[in-house]
Amino acid sequence: MNRPVLQVALDLVELDRAVTIAGEAVAGGADWLEAGTPLIKSEGMRAVSTLKATYPDHTIIADMKTADTGAIEVEMAAKSGADIVCVLGASDDSVIAESVRAARKYGVKIMADLISVTNPAIRASELEQLGVDYLCAHTGIDQQMTGTDSLDLLLKVIHEVTIPVAAAGGISEKTSPGAIAAGAKIVIVGGSIIRSSDVSGSTRRIREAMDKPLPYSGPSKNKDEEIREILTLVSSSNVSDAMHRKGAMTGLFSVCQGTKAVGKAVTVQTFAGDWAKPVEAIDLAGPGDIIVINNDQGTRIAPWGELATISCINRGISGVVIDGAARDIDDIRKMKFPIWVRALAPNAGEPKGFGEIGAEISCCGQTVNPGDWIIGDDSGVVVIPKTRAYEITRRAKEVYNTELRIREELHRGKSLSQVMNLIRWEKK
Ligand SMILES: O=C([C@H](O)CO)[C@H](O)[C@H](O)COP(=O)(O)O
Predict the structure, then answer these.
(1) Which fold has domain 5-220?
(2) Which of 307, 304, 306, 253 has the alpha carbon at shortest distance from 274?
(3) 310 alpha carbon to ligand 1 midpoint, in Å?
(4) Spatial contact of 364 and 247, defined as CB atoms under 8 Å apart
(5) Rounded to whole angstroms, how far apart are CA atoms 278 and 280?
(6) Which residue of 141, 397, 402 sits with most ligand 1 atoms within 8 Å of its CB, as the best mutation to test the pocket?
(7) 13 lines ligand 1 (CB under 6 A)
(8) Which of 242, 260, 313, 398 is most buried when burial is the number of CB atoms within 10 A of its CB?
(9) What fold, for 226-390?
(10) Please, which residues have CB within 8 angstroms of residue 45's CB and are 6 or more apart in sequence?
(11) What is the ipTM of this complex?
(12) 193 CA: nearest ligand 1 atom
């Protein structure tokens, strides 16, 4: 293998979409085409045979993730046209050995996937001894969401074996040069290509990046920076999808339409008609924070108005969410400051000083703790618990990316129901 191989993982559930995307990837320079595990589960061996029939000159990989009955699964994939069959490296040695025997019989190769292997360096060498042809240093999609670094595993195994090693797991134009520099002979890319609105362009850019290897220097941003960057890109709707519809506050509206805010919560518990704690919170919040106020659902007396808003802007605070009311709306709208409220009311209360800053509160049906992440836009406000903030944010980016491709297919003339194949996936 002289030139490193670019393998595109077709992790889709509809075969016609997979075939179209494969064609665009081939036009962009994809070398190998993988029938991804979701595609195989959804379409069966037809996924493999159709890819082979459509792209006969390309190496076809069947990502079976075999964990048992190695011989049967390898035989099925081989007879359907696969050139390489992926089995789980964590399977018992007997499964690997049977897979290798079947592969030799049917003239295909075995790639062992190191996903979730406990001791990858040792297992890599064992798998080589067992006769597998390729190893795949693979960080799964769910693992990527929790922040597992994809190239870490590659670095652990690359010097333990002599067979070619593939790198897989969230590889992009940015990280592919690092994979090659670390010694990967095959780069497997799924999401960065198949979710792109320009599959050919993304494939070409990754191909070009692979041809200019650069030493990998590890993740460049800290987690909070990454969370903020992603939340600035995605919408509250994307986050809600990522959270399986949990986290959305109810009963709020955006005072300044067209504004968006992202930040960590500074929580305030106060009582209807008492604006002391909300205003004191401005001095305790830092730039980029969001003040989230439980005002006892008071909708007739506002704990927030124009002067508090000016004070917030001076402090660089990102936004305010009030389970209650605000006033001075005309002035606040001129400032285009992101505020979400339950109601509008001209009455202010008194600065009595009841309540608390920095305690767990309930706001519009959601529990909010200090430091939880908040995203608000015209669709509403969603709270992301800080304990899962990184994971949820990464998943929201996946939702965002998936929609890029869906949008592109709608622009090409398909209906949403067709793209999603709704009738097929109705619950039986
Ligand atoms: O094997 C994969 C995954 O387990 C789903 O089947 C992916 O093909 C692999 O992770 C590459 O996809 P990305 O991580 O989206 O690049």
Answers:
(1) TIM Barrel (3.20.20)
(2) 304
(3) 48
(4) no
(5) 6
(6) 141
(7) no
(8) 242
(9) Glucose Oxidase; domain 1 (3.50.30)
(10) 62, 76, 77, 79, 80
(11) 0.98
(12) 16
Predicted pLDDT at 298: 84
Distance from the alpha carbon of residue 154 to the mean position of ligand 1, in angstroms: 15
The position carrying tokens 């990967």 is 184
- Quick: pLDDT tens for 38-79: 999 999 999 999 999 999 999 999 999 999 999 999 999 999
| Sole residue written with tokens 């004191």 | 280
Q: Which of 69, 18, 14, 62 is nearest to 37 (CA)?
A: 62
pLDDT tens for each residue of 217-226: 666 678 999 9
402 lines ligand 1 (CB under 6 A): no
Mutation pick for ligand 1 pocket among 153, 172, 188 (CB with most ligand atoms within 8 Å): 188
**What is the pTM for the complete model shown?**
0.93
Q: Does the beta carbon of 63 sit less than 6 angstroms from any atom of ligand 1?
A: yes
Sequence-separated (6 or more) residues with CB below 8 Å from residue 49: 80, 81
- Would you kindly state where each structural domain of the chain is located, as residue ranges? 5-220, 226-390
